[in-house]
Amino acid sequence: MIIETLSVFPGVFAPYLDASIMGRAQAKGIFSFEAYDLRDWTHDRHRTVDDAPFGGGQGMLMKPAPIFEAVRDISSRGEHVPHVVFFSPCGRRFDEEVAERLSHEERLLFVCGRYEGMDERAYRLADDVLSLGDYVLTGGELPALVVIDAVVRLLPGALGDEMSALDESFSDGLLEYAQYTRPADYDGLCVPEVLLSGDHGAVDAWRRKSAIERTARWRPDLLAGAGLSPDEWELARQIMEQDHVTGADGNDDSATGGE
């Protein structure tokens, strides 16, 4: 896979993408990465990429011309036309399903906004517009890194163990089961006996139950899409009632309402 970014701060990506799993995946040729500086597509002495918004208002907007020129120029290079991703609060919420879809693209180009955002006309260049959540960041570089990390982990060979990604949170609609390592007893806190038993069937059953319990406790909104059996739904219901958490339908039955 070819991964590229377009940003006014192209130097922020390499320290992360050259390290750990991302760095090893690059070294193995699983993906290649290049960061482009948006200012290379400006034509004035100050390399200006922003201007005041029409109609007034706070802050500055990124101008459309450098973005259009850059995306068109970058897209014309190489064998594959990139799948272009922008970031905006208006975009689709990024999740594992989107990461899986993007992992099948040959080439990805992430366009990172700054300031108060981009001229609206630039978004017509996007194949995807994504949002990480309901909060504001100073630029698109961090969201781009998050999406790149999530996508690269799904590429064959990136994690070393082809099954690793299949066991992680959201892979089956549930949060990942609880995990433990040595020592088996730390300060009186003991690892569940089943994990020390060597009984792989019992371990698998415990892990499934643990995943359901953790999801019911922390992310009950995920349960509806997890394909639970009737017995598993009953377990989830008991956990939610016990912990007094919001149900899978997003409603808290204990709420009394009010003004």
TrEMBL record:
tRNA methyltransferase TRMD/TRM10-type domain location: 1-223
Matches recorded under InterPro entries: Alpha/beta_knot_MTases, tRNA_m1G_MeTrfase_C_sf, tRNA_m1G_MeTrfase_TrmD, tRNA_m1G_MTases_N, tRNA_MeTrfase_TRMD/TRM10
Keyword Ribonucleoprotein applies: no
SUPFAM superfamilies: alpha/beta knot
Enzyme class of the recorded protein, top EC level: transferase
Localization in the cell: Cytoplasm
Positions with a binding annotation for S-adenosyl-L-methionine: G113, L132, G133, D134, Y135, V136, L137
Keywords recorded for this protein, A-Z: Cytoplasm, Methyltransferase, S-adenosyl-L-methionine, Transferase, tRNA processing
GO biological process terms on file: tRNA N1-guanine methylation
GO cellular component: cytosol
Task performed by this protein: Specifically methylates guanosine-37 in various tRNAs.
Family assignment from sequence similarity: Belongs to the RNA methyltransferase TrmD family.
Subunit structure: Homodimer.
The protein, known as: tRNA (guanine-N(1)-)-methyltransferase
Gene: trmD
